[in-house]
Design brief:
alpha+beta; 8-stranded mixed sheet; 9 helices; 8 strands; globular; binds zinc ion
């Protein structure tokens, strides 16, 4: 009977403890992202590119729904990773994985039907013609959150294929078994964030979640803290609009980097990836400063 008297550990102090992470629902996620890209294309100078990205997200949704299911991470590995404070998904090992190679094959084949700018078409054909070794190089770069200069376009196709595979893999995990790894590091796959968002949903209102650029897991991070170095000192915010901005740059004086922060609490439609591209104006503003971009987004690598 004492059970009823035990305080709920998630409600200590009357404030519910926000969950560490929300795992992606890949099909819904990519469908919603496609709609958001299409919406942003209606009123943006980057309209043709945004429409292309909408189509690419739609293709991701289709592949997530139709490819053979991703093999779940072994329970022993999940347990060992949690004990060691590590993410259960070993991204670097995925460069060798057949299921990811098959996803890349399906994505590049599906993408041939999409309308795209000529440089995109050339890059797509290059990836399709790439041999095993070249594909391995592209995959290894993407799985290390790295895009060599002047090769943004081929890496984009590889990145969106990796996103499909990683989101499906993350979706097989149990969020309750994840442990915090490090500030600014995804607890599911060890990836870097694309952006972070101050949430508006009931229960996690005004709580910040970072979105993984690779597997789309969202994880809790305290606010006013640099996602690149973990510093809580010297954090400031910049935006293009002067008042009521829903997209800001969280700037760190310690490591001289910045990551976008979205206020979903003010605009629930903001998408961690699509609105990152849609708010390119902020990147242009920040390029004129001494600070370097910390959020990883292969869709912006060419800008
Ligand atoms: Zn991740
Ligand atoms: Zn920093």
């Amino acid at each position: 009977m004492t059970d009823d008297l035990e305080p709920d550990p998630s409600l200590i102090g009357g404030v519910p403890k926000p969950p560490l992470a929300f795992l992606p629902e890949p099909v819904k996620l990519f469908q919603a992202r496609a709609r958001r890209f299409a919406f942003l294309a209606e009123s943006n100078e980057l309209a043709p590119y945004l429409r292309f990205l909408a189509e690419l997200s739609r293709l991701q949704a289709r592949l997530a729904a139709t490819l053979p299911p991703a093999a779940p991470v072994a329970p022993q590995r999940i347990a060992d990773a949690a004990k060691a404070g590590m993410p259960p998904i070993d991204r670097t090992a995925l460069a060798e994985e057949a299921a990811l190679a098959a996803t890349l094959e399906a994505l590049t084949e599906g993408a041939t039907a999409l309308e795209m700018p000529e440089p995109g078409r050339v890059a797509l054909e290059a990836v399709r013609a790439a041999d095993r070794e070249q594909r391995h190089w592209l995959l290894t770069n993407i799985l290390s959150d790295r895009i060599p200069e002047n090769s943004a376009a081929p890496h984009l196709f590889v990145a969106v294929a990796a996103e499909v595979h990683l989101a499906r893999l993350a979706a097989t995990l149990d969020a309750g078994l994840l442990v915090p790894v490090h500030v600014g590091i995804c607890p599911a796959c060890g990836g870097r964030p694309v952006t972070s968002s101050v949430m508006g949903m009931q229960g996690i209102e005004n709580v910040r979640y970072a979105a993984c650029a690779s597997c789309a897991t969202q994880w809790n991070e305290v606010r006013v803290k640099c996602l690149c170095c973990g510093s809580t000192k010297g954090i400031s915010y910049r935006s293009v609009e002067t008042t009521e901005a829903t997209v800001k740059a969280e700037v760190c004086q310690e490591c001289k980097s910045w990551v976008k922060i979205f206020y979903q609490v003010k605009n629930p439609s903001l998408d961690p990836v699509a609105d990152d591209v849609g708010s390119l104006g902020l990147d242009i503003l920040m390029k004129e400063t001494e600070f370097r971009r910390g959020g990883f987004n292969p869709r912006l690598a060419g800008y």
